Amino acid sequence: MIQPFYFDTPEQTAHAITQRLIDHLEKAMRPFFLAVSGGSTPNLLFSLWGNEYADQIKWQRLHLFWVDERCVAPNDPESNYGNMKRRCLDNIHIPSENIHRIYGEAPPELEADRYSLEVKNLLPVKQGIPRFDMILAGMGDDGHTSSIFPGQTQWLTEKKPYVVSVHPVTGQQRIAMTGTVMMAADELIFHVTGASKKELIHAMLHPNEEQKKLPAIYIAQHAKNANLFCDMPA
Ligand code: 6PG
Q1: Alpha carbon of 126 to those of 14, 133, 180, 187, 212: distances in Å?
Q2: Separation of 70 CA from ligand 1 center, angstroms?
Q3: Atom 9, ligand 1: which residue's CA is nearest?
Q4: Which is deepest, 19, 93, 140, 194, by most CB within 10 Å?
Q5: Beta carbons of 206 and 189 less than 8 angstroms apart
Q6: Using CB atoms within 10 A of its CB, is residue 188 exposed (0-12), middle (13-18) or buried (19+)?
Q7: Which residues pair with 192 in a beta bridge?
């Protein structure tokens, strides 16, 4: 099941997620493993982290990973890493060894395997599955999450932590965290804001049979501990 948390604005939603992260980092007795997503929703969050919260987040305790990456170079405007770097990483004091980016410029299949191994080597692994402390996921207008698009059901339960997926419209290759890893996270947060997502937010909480097959909703429904942070009134 997924627990919803409602806020009035995208700003309040981003502040609430940040506060939750700060609280976890205060208590963390070991490195804290966080994975962030791309797309436009987290832009506000990353800008807050790079400015207002730059000195409040215990960056030394945080190991930063990505849920997914587009197969492009880091300086490409499509790069999820490049986007976060400009908004946040360039402005904060985080040890460079704590930043674990996906090499979007590398051959995709090799990179999916390399990054899967990096994640498995650094994170606690239980029953073969690496366990993130927190994953910040988005949801696309078509119900995708990570880069698992509707119909790509094989990536929901795939055993590998990361795979190569293909955007169904543009054909762009992506490196995507699988549903298996997302569902096993200690805390999976769906960060979803904006009027265009209103129906999908409702569907995430009360899905019909068809909606249950959408990747974001399937993962939300089957996750060990999923929360929805959104700006939609109940
Ligand atoms: C990406 C993502 C993706 C994103 C959703 C939502 O690289 O595109 O990580 O899963 O979270 O597409 O994107 P928006 O926030 O732009 O709606």
Answers
A1: 30, 13, 12, 15, 27
A2: 11
A3: 38
A4: 140
A5: no
A6: buried
A7: 230
Number of CB atoms found within 10 A of residue 158's CB? 17
Distance 29 CA to ligand 1 centre (A): 31
Tell me the pLDDT of the chain averaged across its residues: 97
If you take atom 2 of ligand 1, which residue's CA is the nearest one? 38
The secondary structure of residue 146, as a DSSP letter, is T
C-alpha 42 to ligand 1 mean position (Å): 9
Instruction: List, for residues 216-232, the tens digit of each pLDDT value.
Output: 999 999 999 999 999 97
Instruction: Indicate the helix (H) or strand (E) that contains 69.
Output: strand 68-70
Residue 5's CB is within 10 A of a number of other CB atoms, namely 13
- 4/121 Cα distance (integer angstroms): 33
Q: Which tokens in the block code for residue 137?
A: 């996921």
Q: Cα–Cα distances in Å, from 86 out to 18, 51, 103, 112, 160?
A: 18, 12, 17, 24, 30
- For residue 232, the model assigns a pLDDT of 74
Task: Report residues whose beta carbon is within 6 angstroms of any ligand 1 atom.
Answer: 37-41, 67-68, 80, 138-140, 144-147
Report if pTM > 0.90. yes
